[in-house]
Structure formats: C-alpha cells, structure tokens
Design brief:
Structural class: alpha+beta
Number of strands: 11
CATH class of the largest domain: Alpha Beta
Radius of gyration: 20 Å
Number of helices: 11
Helix content: 25-40%
Largest sheet: 7 strands, mixed
Order of helices and strands: HEEEEHEHHHEEEHHHHHEEHE
Number of domains: 2
CATH architecture of the largest domain: 2-Layer Sandwich
C-alpha cells in the first residue's frame, strides 16, 4: 500500500470517532430548600461552567465499553459504576436499537470535588449518543435519562449557566457574563452523601421557609456587568459549606487562600466541596492569584480561567 493510500485508510478509520467534553460545573450559590419525604433534597443553585473539562470520545461499535486515562483516572473507582455507562444503559432502555460503542474518557478534573465531573462526563456521553443516533438535543428521553443518572446531569447536559431548582430538573437559563475565576481543590475527596448527612435534615424538614423564597434575589438580566452579579451572588451563600468544613477543615484553608488573594471579589465553596472558587474583576488578577497559590500549595489542584 502506498503512503497516500495508508493515509486515506487511517482517515477513514477515525472519521466516525465523536468527541465532546465534560466542563466543570460550579455552584455560584447553593441553597438547600429542604429534604423531601422521599429523602431527596430540594435545592436552588446558580450554576455556571468553567473552561476546564474532562474529554470523552465515542467510537461506534457493537459493544458498550469504557476506558479511562488521564491524571485523575485512578480516582474514578470501579468502571462498572461510572456514570458514563449508567447513562448509556438507561438511554438504551428507552431508545430502540440505540447505536452504542467504545467510550474513552480522559479524566482531567478532580474526583468527588463538588464540580460535577462525573455528571459532566455522563452528560457528554448522552450528547455523543444523541449525535450518533440522530436524536434532537431536546428529545425528552435525554432529559429523563439525565435526571435518572444524577441530580447534576440535567444542567451538565445543557452545559450553560442556569438557575437550577428542585432535585435538578428545574433549569432556568441565565445571561451570565464571563467571570474571571480561580478554582482550587486540595486534592482531598469529599463524598456528597456525607455532607448532606452532616447537614442533618430529616425527611420532610424544610431549611428555607416560604418567606425566604419570596425574598430570594432576582438575578441580573442580559448585559448586566460583573459587579451586579457579584453583588447579587454575595446575598446567597452555599448551605453545604459549613457541614463540608466540619468534615474536611482544609476547605477553610482553601477559602482563606482564595479570599485573601489580591483582587478577589467573592470566595466560596462549590457544590458539596472540596473545590472552592474566587471571582475576580480581571483575568490578569485571576492568573496572578493562581500562580501564588500554586507556589504556596504545590499539592493543590489549581485552575485559572473563566466561568460562563
């Protein structure tokens, strides 16, 4: 075979490989409204997405498989429990003769970190399967499977800034400006179930009353500057931050490092932790803060970028 023919053969063998990414989800606010009688927690959260992500590819084939690589792959646990496979199997139950294949996940985001890495991966898998099978992005089966896979998967499926409510099913898109930020994780996993257990709500117990819901801030509209968003976000915190800090006090150290950085306008924990973030007025300030934190804490995972 000539070199030209070999090149053509290689191109044809890779032409059908589909690729997507699972962007880190950041909870700019997180209120726990209460715990329902079925044990699930109702939440209200302003969610944004970062410019750091896991990478997922799908090669069409007769069998559903998954391989993981990347710097945080070993922390993913058993492959059989991976949300990519769970989402694919649930979709296959609902779409007759669903085309599947071999998934390859390059894991870049920290695991059990409060930034929805596994949920973002599952959402990326659903988007890839939708493309492979000609499913519309708004196919109700995708939304159904996303929610069954995990509470953060629906918002990660959209992968756009939203006000998320309920157990993840309520999504109101928001016109969020680009927010310069630094994300920091101390490389210590925190189990979501442990944080909710430490919160200590009983089934049927409300944490937020009706009056609190009425006084909930209205989020800035389209074109609002960063300063307006910082002011609005400052009013509502993260109800899981205190119980998470009791479980892993190092979260307090992360917040101190971020909050003390020059130019930081808001520092907070994301999700159930231990990842925390700080918002800055300018990208240069975020880059400088990240550089200093990396130097001071070389074992921490640090990312400077933008939320949107």
């Amino acid at each position: 075979m000539t070199g030209e023919a070999e090149t053509g053969a290689k191109a044809s063998s890779t032409a059908h490989v589909l690729a997507d990414c699972g962007r880190a989800k950041v909870n700019l606010t997180l209120r726990v409204v209460g715990r329902r009688v079925d044990g699930y927690h109702d939440l209200e959260s302003v969610v944004a997405f970062a410019d750091c992500a896991d990478r997922l590819t799908l090669t069409p084939g007769p069998e559903l498989t998954l391989v993981t690589t990347g710097p945080t792959a070993q922390a993913c646990g058993e492959l059989a429990d991976n949300l990519v496979l769970k989402a694919a199997r649930l979709l296959a139950e609902r779409v007759p003769e669903l085309k599947l294949g071999a998934f390859a996940l390059e894991k870049m985001l920290p695991v059990a970190a409060g930034i929805g890495g596994g949920s973002a991966d599952a959402a990326a898998a659903l988007r890839l399967l939708a493309r492979l099978n000609g499913l519309a992005p708004d196919d109700p089966r995708l939304a159904e499977v996303a929610l069954l896979t995990g509470a953060d998967v629906p918002v990660c499926l959209l992968s756009k800034a939203c006000d998320m409510t309920g157990v993840g099913e309520g999504l109101l898109p928001l016109n969020l400006p680009k927010l310069p930020c630094v994300l920091v994780n101390p490389n210590i996993p925190v189990a979501t179930k442990d944080v909710f257990a430490a919160l200590g709500l009983r089934n049927g117990e409300l944490l937020v009353g009706a009056a609190d819901v009425i006084k909930s801030p209205a989020w800035p509209g389209e074109g609002a500057p960063l300063a307006d968003w910082v002011a609005a976000l400052s009013v509502v915190g993260n109800d899981l931050e205190a119980p998470a800090r009791r479980i892993e006090p190092v979260i307090g150290d992360v917040l101190s490092a971020l909050g003390g950085a020059e130019g930081a306008k808001l520092a907070r924990m994301s999700g159930s932790g231990a990842t925390c973030f700080a918002l800055f007025g300018h990208a240069a300030e975020a880059q400088a803060a990240a550089k200093k934190i990396c130097a001071d804490r070389p074992t921490w995972w640090v990312h400077a970028g933008e939320l949107s």
